[in-house]
């Protein structure tokens, strides 16, 4: 794939951009020339202007999405799944386009952009084929056995708001929208100001797959204002982002009594037991620490190593880390790309500089790579990190990992459970029962055994989410689609209203009721 003089992929011509920005939903401010433009990490130059909406646009977008829900929800699940499966096929076929856009807007390496395609395609296929079974009616015994029936059914919530960050613009912008749409909801997605084109490209592709226009709307504009407006109007909000913003979103949603799922930050630990396969542990650590240039909620930032294998593991990790190819290209020739923005570079540098100033030792990296790109940063390994350093228990969200030495499993678990987050954790060990026992003691929504991070996230039939400050609610699996519905109980009687028949003495009815209680108890009914 060639680029123009700047980092823009050469095929991204004005008419292409117009075909995507057409999908910005701003019914109220249509015609206004307000735009927003992000900075491309590869060259520090502007990407392309995207129309910017207002909170009034969000209100109108939600209203038109809500008007569309009746017809969309009335379709059969299979009809909706047909759209999603066509989207799947188009995505797989046209993946180079979206990978170019992801890289241009966000700066990650090609392989990490491909992982987004892989994850979204897997989610689309899985929920299209199996989502209906997660939403099946549940028959239960009625209030009066035999004479009455009851079922619990799932009904769509209405309009789902999806607020996503810039680090996985395809996966987090679309992967959560797919089950919401399949469950019969309309979606209003808020594009992150750094990565709107990826989401708009995807919206256009979903239209090619046959999704009716009002059913999925994309709103743009200043993050706080537009994000708050989304929470103020939708019927459910799926938020992914920082813990600080997640708290605000959760409070705002709670005031409106709407449901929310909050997928937030992490400071994820990886434990290397004394019996671990060290080569595999080192490779797994590097993969999980530096994936997406360390800008991944589940990436590893703390490595807790048994004293007996500490030196051997350190050597192996440094070998892998120094062999990583850091660079910027629209192909698979680099392992690690750029950080996403000047802000990210400043935050990551500040964490590392603070640690070094307070006595941490840099074993690898520890500095920017301006010769690679304006926001590139070297994969970094530290040791000697102490509690007074910002990066000790605070999320760095960059390609930086710190090593800690422990002397037994209990100490490893205690160290891993420190801090307020609880998103993901990993254990490398050749003793499966022990690793399983330790996994249950870790405060983390996902635990990977003999893998750094991707294994649990890729197990899309199981939930993924956080404990503690890492959030509430789950994506993927049954909960990843059920959360977009509400349970409704439908009870029916073939007798007419349950209660004393007309004219019956209440004394007789109560006596019969008491006899039934004793009968049920002795026959063990219920
Ligand atoms: P952020 O919280 O700053 O922004 C996330 C989204 O919220 C953006 O679209 C932003 O425009 C919007 N927003 C900002 N203020 C808002 C408000 N007041 N109300 C509603 N929306 C608002 O997060 P970020 O820095 O862009 O993303 C990185 C963070 O996201 C990291 O902490 C990372 O760990 C976390 N993250 C978590 C997961 C997960 O699944 N748990 C996945 C990816 C990223």
Automatic annotation (TrEMBL):
PROSITE patterns named in the record: ALDEHYDE_DEHYDR_GLU (PS00687)
InterPro entries: Ald_DH/histidinol_DH (IPR016161), Ald_DH_C (IPR016163), Ald_DH_CS_GLU (IPR029510), Ald_DH_N (IPR016162), Aldehyde_DH_dom (IPR015590)
Domain Aldehyde dehydrogenase stretches: 33-490
Assigned keywords, A-Z: Oxidoreductase
Enzyme active site: 263
Pfam families according to UniProt: Aldedh
Keyword presence, Signal: no
Assigned protein family: Belongs to the aldehyde dehydrogenase family.
NCBIfam families: PRK09407.1
Official protein name in the record: Succinic semialdehyde dehydrogenase
């Amino acid at each position: 794939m060639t680029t123009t003089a700047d980092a823009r992929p050469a095929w991204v011509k004005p008419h292409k951009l117009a075909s995507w920005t057409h999908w910005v939903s701003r019914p109220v401010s249509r015609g206004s020339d307000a735009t927003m433009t992000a900075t491309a990490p590869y060259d520090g130059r502007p990407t392309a202007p995207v129309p910017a909406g207002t909170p009034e646009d969000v209100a109108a977008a939600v209203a038109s999405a809500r008007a569309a829900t009746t017809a969309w929800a009335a379709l059969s699940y299979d009809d909706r799944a047909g759209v999603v499966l066509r989207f799947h096929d188009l995505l797989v076929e046209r993946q180079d386009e979206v990978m170019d856009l992801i890289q241009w807007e966000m700066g990650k390496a090609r392989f990490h952009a491909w992982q987004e395609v892989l994850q979204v395609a897997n989610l689309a296929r899985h929920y299209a084929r199996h989502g209906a079974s997660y939403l099946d009616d549940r028959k239960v015994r009625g209030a009066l056995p035999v004479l009455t029936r009851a079922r619990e059914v799932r009904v769509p919530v209405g309009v789902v708001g999806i607020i996503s960050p810039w680090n996985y613009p395809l996966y987090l912008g679309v992967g959560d929208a797919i089950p919401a749409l399949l469950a019969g909801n309309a979606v209003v997605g808020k594009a992150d100001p750094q990565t709107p084109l990826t989401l708009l490209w995807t919206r256009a592709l979903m239209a090619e797959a046959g999704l009716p226009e009002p059913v999925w709307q994309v709103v743009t504009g200043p993050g706080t204002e537009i994000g708050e407006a989304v929470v103020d109007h939708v019927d459910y909000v799926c938020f992914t982002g920082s813990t600080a913003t997640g708290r605000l979103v959760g409070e705002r949603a709670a005031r409106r009594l709407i449901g929310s799922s909050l997928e937030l930050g992490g400071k994820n630990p990886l434990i290397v037991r004394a019996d671990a396969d060290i080569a595999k542990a080192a490779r797994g650590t590097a993969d999980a620490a530096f994936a997406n240039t360390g800008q991944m909620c589940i990436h590893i930032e703390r490595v807790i190593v048994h004293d007996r294998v500490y030196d051997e593991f350190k050597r192996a990790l440094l070998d892998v880390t120094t062999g990583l190819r850091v660079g910027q290209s629209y192909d698979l020739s680099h392992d690690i790309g750029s950080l996403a923005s000047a802000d990210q570079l400043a935050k990551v540098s500040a964490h590392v500089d603070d640690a070094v100033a307070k006595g941490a030792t840099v074993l690898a990296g520890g500095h920017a790579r301006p010769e690679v790109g304006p926001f590139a940063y070297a994969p970094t390994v530290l040791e000697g990190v102490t509690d007074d350093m910002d990066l000790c228990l605070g999320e760095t969200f960059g390609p930086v990992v710190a090593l800690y030495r422990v002397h037994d499993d209990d100490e490893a678990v205690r160290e891993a459970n420190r801090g307020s987050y609880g998103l993901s954790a990993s254990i490398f060990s050749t003793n499966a029962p022990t690793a399983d026992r330790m996994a249950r003691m870790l405060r983390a929504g996902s635990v990977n055994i003999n893998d750094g991070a991707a294994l649990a996230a890729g197990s899309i039939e199981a939930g993924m989410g956080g404990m503690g400050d890492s959030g509430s609610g789950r994506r993927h699996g049954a909960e990843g689609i059920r959360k977009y519905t509400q349970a409704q109980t439908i009870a029916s009687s073939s007798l007419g209203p349950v209660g004393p028949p007309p004219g019956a003495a209440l004394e007789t009815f109560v006596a019969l009721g008491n006899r039934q209680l004793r009968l049920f108890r002795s026959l063990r009914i219920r």
